[in-house]
Known about the structure:
Layout: E1 9-19, E2 23-25, H1 30-45, H2 63-68, E3 89-92, E4 99-101, E5 106-114, H3 121-134, E6 143-151, E7 157-163, E8 166-167, E9 174-175, E10 188-199, E11 202-203, E12 206-207, H4 213-231, H5 242-249, E13 253-268, E14 273-287, H6 294-303, E15 316-322
Antiparallel strand pairs: 1-5, 1-6, 1-9, 2-4, 3-5, 6-7, 7-8, 10-14, 10-15, 11-12, 13-14
Amino acid sequence: MKTPEKTLPCVRLRWEIRARKTIELPSYKGSTLRGALGMALKHSCCAARQRPCESCLLRASCLYVYLFETPLLGESPDDARYRNAPHPFVLQIAMDGPMRLEPGSLYSFDMTVIGRAVQWTPYLVMAAHRMGEMGIGKGRGTFDLERVHSLDAHGNPWEEIYAEGVLRLPEKSLDLTGNPLPGTPPHTKAFTLRFLTPVRLVSQGEPVRVADFAPLMATLLRRLENLHRFHGDGNGAFSLPFQELMDKARSVSIVENRTRWFDWERYSHRQGRKMRLGGLVGEVVYGGDLSAFEPYLSVGRWVNVGKGTSFGLGRYEVEQDMEGE
């Protein structure tokens, strides 16, 4: 299968913080961390101050708007299909219950920064420092940012981006265009997707409650295309073998469905209201050959799939059942 010639770089970052005052975090931490980071970045870089972002003259060149209120390009009829462009970052957060960090305790979380946003990594580090001063969670517990390092394709430490007051731009990046990863296994007879955080798929305006493989794969491929379109270098078209992949995806069937629907609620300060965001969690076993989809499913683990990815929704793992085992 022909793979795209264009590349879309990303950097996977691990942030390590040390509590200065007691920090209380809810079961699902993605909304809390994203909201606090966005508020800290806006406080740090906003030149207009009290002016709403929607009416600000600097909106088109504002880093906060680009990262957290990513506007549509308005250059294609396809833009009419979306309310917002995909954000150029994804939080990778575990659903591990409420957490209380006593002073001196360490906590880490991961983030994928995508495309052109990689160059703004120093501003995200600055915002994390500011977030530590402003406080997070119940009671606004404060913290110190101790270290930020990047991760390689297999999740191992790669580059030190920040430590002891020294900040460096990432020099190494990963490719999100779906090229096969080193050590990719041969053909498989079945594979399992494990949904670690709610996977929120929508079809014809309605939430998808059964994770059939074809619509899941279509959502992921469209996401990868849109990430390149909105956050790539802008030099040349990027396209995936969409129809070829979808023809093969329709032959993949569900062997065993061990997923369930999970509802969670978050408060949007920007919209001034509570929002309920449900999705599928658990495992689903598919029957079929993974080889055609493996490159895209592999990089999809770094950017998640479905709606709410910037909060950490749509995170999954792939487990392969090898032929002959």
